[in-house]
Fold:
Amino acid sequence: MKLRWIPNILTMGNLTCGFMSVVFASFNSSEGYVVGAVLILVAALLDGLDGQVARWLRVSSPVGKELDSLADSVAFGVAPGYLAYVTYLSGTNALMFGRSIDLGVPIAAIFPVCAAYRLARFNVQSSSDSFTGLPSPVAGILVALAPICLPHVHIPTPLFASMFSLVGFLMVSTVRYSKPQSFILKNLHGFRLAGLVVLVGLLLLLFKFWVIFLFIGLYVLSGLLTFVIQFIEDHRY
Structure:
C-alpha cells in the first residue's frame, strides 16, 4: 500500500511545479519568467517518471491515472498559458464595442482549454503505441522554451500568437504521434540505453536547452509530416 504513494507523490510534484510556475511568472520579471519556464520542464520530467515508476512497482491505479490528468492540466495547460500571456501576449489590445479589449487573454486561454480536452480524450481513447494529438507535456515544453532560449529576443506578437495557437490546436488534432518511451524501453537496453543517456547528457552540456528544443521540434514535425504523407496517400486517386 505504501509503495502506491511513490508515483502519486511524483504526480503531486508535477502539479506543484505547475502552480509554482504561475507564481514565479506573476512576478513580471525576466528571472521570474525563466524560473516559471524551468518549473514546467521539471513538471514534464516528473510526469514522465510517475507512470514508469507505477509500472515498475506494479502499483498502477485508476486514481493515479485521474490524478495525473488533473496535474497535467495545471502544469501543461494553465501554467504555459499564463506564462505565454505575461511574456508575449499581454497588452494585445483591440477596440471592440467602444472599449479596449486585451485579446491576449482569450488567446492564452486556448492552451488550458485544449490541454484539458486532450487529456480527457486520452483517458477514454488511449492507444498502446501512439498518441492522438500532440501530448500536452510536449506542448507545454515548447511554450516554456521560448523565454529560456530567447530571453532577449523580441518575438512579434502576431507571430507568437499564431505559433502558440497552432501548438494548442495540435493537442486536440487527429495528428498521430509515436510514443518515444515505448520505443526506448522495447529497443534500447544495457549499453545502448547507457550510450543514449551519455550522448544526451553531453549535448545538454554543450548546447543546453537548445538540444531539448531541437528534439521537441523534430518530434512535432514528425507527426505533421506523417499526417501530410497519409493525407496525400488517401487522396491520390
The chain has a mean pLDDT of 82. The radius of gyration is 19 Å. The chain is about 75% helix and 5% strand. The beta strands are 93-96, 99-102, 130-132, 176-178.
